[in-house]
Amino acid sequence: MSYIIARLREPSTYAGLAALLAAFGVSIAPEKMTAVVSLVTALAGVVAVFLPDRNA
Question: What is this structure's pTM?
Answer without folding.
Answer: 0.47
